[in-house]
Amino acid sequence: MRVQFVMQEIWIGLRRNLTMTISLVITVAIAMALFGTGLLLRQQVAASKDYWYDKIEVSIFLCAKTSSNANCQKQDVTDAQRASIKQQLQKMANVSDVQYETKQQAYSRFKDRFSGSPGFVQSTREGDIPDSFRVKLKNPEEYKPVAQAMLARPGVDTVINEQQILKKFFKILNGLQAAALGIALIQVIASVLLVGNTVRLSAFNRRRETGIMRLVGASNTYIQLPFILEGAIAGLIGGLFASVLLVVSKKLLIDRLAGTVQLVSQLGWFQVIMVIIVSICFGVLLCAASSFLTLRRYLKI
To answer: Is the pTM higher than 0.70?
Structure first.
């Protein structure tokens, strides 16, 4: 098989259908970038879940004079009630650790967490956040028995499970992932159609050459190979452009999300490189397979 001849045919095909090739490259680049972004978001959600679910706590806020709960009767929790609540928590089978947090400690932690929003911090005074017990569970999924037992006790204002907050946040991330993959699917379909049209047009323009090759006894593989490689090269170029878009997506979307939202752990470059490799391979295989299937149907050999 003459490699020089095959490469020459590939160049002729790409040059003759330059506008369609450019359209194909752009479509593949967008499709693979969206596909890769969906994979990055999926890894981001998985990494964040693994990191934060082990740190989930149930916060049991105690009664204070400022509490809106009618059971508190506008009174602070008593020392006896506080000791009784802690004793019951320590006896629960699913509780692994109980930490008491005073109003002063809660206000200090609040200032540290929202240090980037000085206006919000200034509008909150020490004492506005009640003292609480921060409870770590052996199994974060089984928080309801703890919450139900604590809500019925005197001296308890509210019970907040951090897992519910995390689930809402991860639901948003999952929605972004589904949207990216959905748009990527539409772009993949457009890429397949463009590959088919490009190959059909290229085969029509070179029908004389392919006819001569059939007459001299060229094999089907030898005739098909330039067309398949045209699609594969277009997919490779589109995948390379998609890798640039994925790096930009990592910098502008994933890293900013991790930097501004404390619930997100940051992805490393190793995961990004693996997604880029998968996206490029998928783009090349998609275009090559589309070219092959189109040739089988439209190129009479």
So the answer is: no
DSSP assignment of the chain, as one string? --HHHHHHHHHHHHHHTHHHHHHHHHHHHHHHHHHHHHHHHHHHHHHHHHHHGGG-EEEEEEP-TT---GGGTT-PPPHHHHHHHHHHHHH-TTEEEEEEE-HHHHHHHHHHHTTT-HHHHHT--TTSSPPEEEEEESSTT--HHHHHHHHTSTTEEEEEEHHHHHHHHHHHHHHHHHHHHHHHHHHHHHHHHHHHHHHHHHHHHTHHHHHHHHHTT--HHHHHHHHHHHHHHHHHHHHHHHHHHHHHHIIIIIHHHHHH-TT-PPPPHHHHHHHHHHHHHHHHHHHHHHHHHHHHHHS--
Q: 8 or 270: which carries more pLDDT confidence?
A: 270
Which comes out higher in pLDDT, residue 216 or 62?
A: 62
Q: What pairs with residue 135 in β-bridges?
A: 58, 98
Do 54 and 162 form a contact (C-beta atoms < 8 A)? no
What lies within 8 Å, CB to CB, of 227 at 6+ separation is: 13, 199, 202, 203, 291, 295, 299
CA distance 196 to 30: 18
Q: Write out pLDDT tens, residues 163-207.
A: 776 677 677 777 777 787 787 778 778 777 777 777 777 666 666
Question: Could you tell me which of 193, 4, 6, 228 has the C-alpha nearest to residue 236?
Answer: 228
* Amino acid at site 104: Q
Pick from 195, 237, 229: which is nearest to 25 by CA? Answer: 237
* Whole-number average pLDDT of the chain: 76
Q: Give the distance, in angstroms, between the CA of residue 143 and the centroid of all CA atoms in the same chain.
A: 27
Res 301: pLDDT: 46
Minimal CA–CA distance to 294: which of 188, 187, 192? 192
CA-CA distance, 16 to 123, in Å (whole number)? 67
pLDDT at 160: 82
